[in-house]
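Incident log, structure service

09:12 report received: a user says their structure output differs between two submissions of the same chain.
09:20 pulled the input from the user's history:
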Amino acid sequence: MSNVKSRFQFKLAVALILFAMLVSTLVATSDHLRMRDQAIANMEKQIELYEKSVRNALDTLDKAYYLFGENLARRMKEISYELVEKYETNPRLDEWDYPRLKEAHRFDVYMINEENTIVFSSFLPDIGLDFDNCCGKLAKVLDERRTDGGFFHDGIDIEQHSGQLKKYSYLATKDKKYIVQLGYSLQDSLIFKEFDFSRTVDGLIQGNPSINEIQVLNLASRRLDNSERGEILRGDRKLAFDAAFATGSTTEYRGMWNDEPAVYRYVRHESQYDKGVTKVKVLEIVYNEKELDRVLDVNTRTFLSQLLGILVVAAGLSLLIAGWVAKPMYLAFHDSLTGLKNRASFEDDIRVALAKPAGTPGLLMIDLDNFKVVNDRLGHEAGDRLLRGVAREIRAAVGSEAYAYRLGGDEFVALLPSATLLEAEGVASRVLSSVRRTISAEVESFGQAITVSIGIALSPEHGADPRTLCRNADTALYKSKELGKNTYCVYRPDGGL
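09:34 re-ran on a clean worker, output below:
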């Protein structure tokens, strides 16, 4: 029995250790994930703060132009109508002196034909620019403005070739063949120099190594600042830009920046003051996760070291607890003499076995014949020794797929979770044979043979509930005793063999 109890204690210790490790791992992992999520949230909050700073800078510039740029818009409107009248009197645009017009009005002049191509301009690099090819969204707006025929002016936009910031206005000729576009450079204006949002952007980039770049993009996805870099986005960056521009939802694309991983974040920004086609812009914030990765790496190493310590402590406590509770727990469900499971275990196990929808549980009621003689002649010590031997043989005979129990005294039972009648009879035969050898080795003959009687009942044929099945197995057991003992009987409802 000590070996059985030791195995039970070992199993209990392992179960407690595994449980403690599981709980410890869950707690430590939960804390680690919480710290990871906090680090990610901090990074997200930081990016949102940068986003807010750029938005505020743009709003400030837009407001400044709204408050102080109305005179400029009125002047552009006057010049636009003058040029439309000039077209009415002289529609041969190739005869116009565009450099002189710019010098006279201080605006670049562009003439856009019905195919949305600049055919004449005081800004020579833009001649031949086809908006249908380069800037689909703007081309669509030009078509709408041509049809409307009214005067329109936008806020801050970008020169296609130079990347310089400009303000543009649009007015269609009366015959709708051309649009007169005027352009005014903003970068030289006092307002832009005073409220240059690119200084805010540069400060943010220099102040944080996690920020690679911050750009403000117009509807054509061109960079909007005081630099000369006016490239159009391509590929996945362009797809992410378009999604943010169209839906207003923040989008992100993971790519490379200077051969290192980076996240491209696109945020739609809608001006409160600009009412033109430049009303909507998109912020592109390119950032790396080096600092986040460093924080997560530190958290991971801390997590692993803490987890190891927790697991060691948990294992030690589990072993200690297992030593304290193993014996009382073992005795609660096992017979203290033989080490077999006891009646309490049997009652639980048979309920479980009969509750399963599949299988045909079998029950063997086992009883020693004339066992009282052993106690009376040789004493209880010899009787206990014999009971232990019988228990050992019953356990071996039923095999690893079945269960053996001592219900009390010289009463034993074997529970076969699923067995045919032939299999149950085979187990009974092995029990008879094995126990016979044990009895011969342990005790001498007293005139009355010490033997074993067995009763067999199968579910559901002989009972679908524990009480009925046990009662019928008992009936079969007493039938075997009536037949002379040292045998087994299968329950028959009619009382026959």
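09:41 both user submissions now match this output. Likely a transient worker issue. Closing.
09:42 reviewer note: The CA atoms of residues 351 and 474 lie 17 Å apart. The mean pLDDT is 83.
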